[in-house]
Amino acid sequence: MHLDGDTRAPAREETHDILALLGDRSTLARRPPVRIEQAADATALRAYRRLRHEAFVREQGLFERHDLDDRDDDPRTITLVARDAAGTVVGGVRLGPACDGPDIGWWTGGRLVAARGSGGTGGVGMGVGAALVRAACARAEAEGVLRFEATVQVRAEAFFRRLGWTRVRPVTVAGAPHVLMRHPIGRIAGQAAAKSALGPLLAALSGQGPHALGGPGFVGDDAAPVPGGDLVAACDAIVPSMVERDPEWAGWCSVLVNLNDLAAMGAAPVGLLDALAAPDAAHAARVLDGLARAARAYGVPVLGGHTQLGVPAALSVTALGRAARPAPGGGGRPGHAVRLTADLGGGWRAGYRGRQWDSTTSRRTDELRAMLGAVAAGRPAAAKDVSMAGIAGTLGMLAEAGGCAAVLDVAAVPRPAAASMGDWLTCFPGFAMLTADEPGAPAPPAGPAVSAVCGELTTGRGVSLRWPDGEVTEAVGGPVTGLGTA
User: Taking the model in full, what pTM does it have?
Assistant: First the structure.
């Protein structure tokens, strides 16, 4: 982002801006009101570009005739403008995808400009610039961006640092020294952190040797081999609030998530058991309707269960399957290729946009069973189904179980066109399996699902994202669950 002279405000203005940010009423009363909005017409764009021309061409001489470039012509570029109380455009900033082709969640901001104030420390320069930067960051994150950067003039580095940005490296723009800055986006890390209590919490159950949680080599797996045979068991509960507000979908998902857990172990399902609590019979019937429809769709019988009425809504299901040689989640090693096999059909579930992708309700039984059999047919070294931790968080769990780290090639991740990268890497995707195996291993047969190698396991801990320009950013800084190696 190129900044005009108003960011070089005296120390009193910086203090004023911080007080306003903290909610100091006297400060807010003194500051002229400013409204940030997306430029909705040509008039707003012309006003913004006039401010840019005045600052970057006439005052600073960074450009000879104009500062327009191909980003201004890109229809994906978003322009935010700041208006004062009179409606006059007093600043603006643009942001959008950093490269041509599909939007993979890497955006840049630029051409940040704020009009010079007329009242010294009461002017709008510093305040408008800060407000525009914050608005640009919020908009980028709302658009599912996972990497957001800007090239700023050297004298503006401290200004961006105060707003939480971090320095990446020095660069040159229009022959002038600049600094590449990055806005930290903790979406993936924040989601993964929700799993961090599992290790300490389950320590009392874990044990050692033959009594380790899940059995030796299967600690932290989605399902557990039952000692003494080829039986594999999985048990998952549905969030009570979802059972309460969307009972049919909760019933469907209770089957879906448990059968996915069996599939990640390479186990063929043989039956289900449900435990249902509901405030009344009508609510219970809606849950059971969704559960029964899913069981029929997958061709898996409900063997029995338990139902209780007159209590808060709750639902859990146990799934039983068989696997002669269960696939471990912790079988991955540094050097193994990471593959994502996912069903990209369907769309966002109504009411869960950006959080739950529904591909399964529109699939035939043969298609659903083909996807469930992918791990058993492919026999990878390690496998884990993508759960509520999302693709990136689940990859962190797979890597943690194998005692290693993972790198995800963002541009290679199979993804529906309707999902932003940020949403896709953090949502529950319906059916998606992460596997690790020797490089060159064939794709598993998975019916309508799409499969692609999109990363590798490495030494270390956590998950990193690798971008087309070779840059690597941290997504998860360390272990996800704390359960350790399998």
Answer: 0.88
